[in-house]
Amino acid sequence: MSKMSHNYEDMLEIERPVSSRRSHLSSADRAAQFSAFAALTGFDDAVRETARLTDTRVILDENEKALLNEKLMLLQKTQSLVILTYFKPDESKAGGSYVTISDQVKKIDLQAQSIQLEGGTAILIEDVIGLDILAAKTEQNRG
Fold first, then answer.
1. Helix (H, G, I), strand (E, B) or coil at 84
2. What percent of the chain has pLDDT over 70?
3. Where are the domains of the chain?
4. Contacts 24+ apart (CB under 8 A), 130-133
């Protein structure tokens, strides 16, 4: 036996000391002392949200608006398959994103200034920046 282990043999049979000033902690409370500490709860989410990029809305010039209006007038008389690119405002910060969707036009609602698509999407006309008509069905061709 080494000299060091011999020096501590007398301690093996001694009971653990119990404090008279502090109560005994449960295992869960002892574990909590050593768990990770998150002083800035939500900070990571806030940094991610701030870092998330949004686009700014593009303002169409007069020529682009005129071309878009011509296409919208044509769509009023047809039920067409279109590709629409429109601005979708972000719900939680300034800016938004541009979305391109392909769908059949259900109707143009001039009262609400929106384009209703067969898939259920309603897009405000003021948000549209691109419109391509892929296949047009006129009133005469529908029958």
1. strand
2. 89
3. 3-51, 62-135
4. 130/83, 130/84, 130/85, 130/86, 130/100, 131/68, 131/71, 131/72, 131/75, 131/82, 131/83, 131/84, 131/85, 132/82, 132/83, 133/71, 133/74, 133/75, 133/78, 133/80, 133/81, 133/82
Tell whether pTM > 0.85. no
What integer pLDDT is reported at residue 117 of this predicted model? 94
Write down the architecture of domain 62-135 according to CATH.
Answer: Roll (2.30)
Query: What are phi and psi for residue 107, nearest 5 degrees?
Result: -165, 160
Is the CB of residue 54 less than 8 Å from the CB of residue 97? Answer: yes
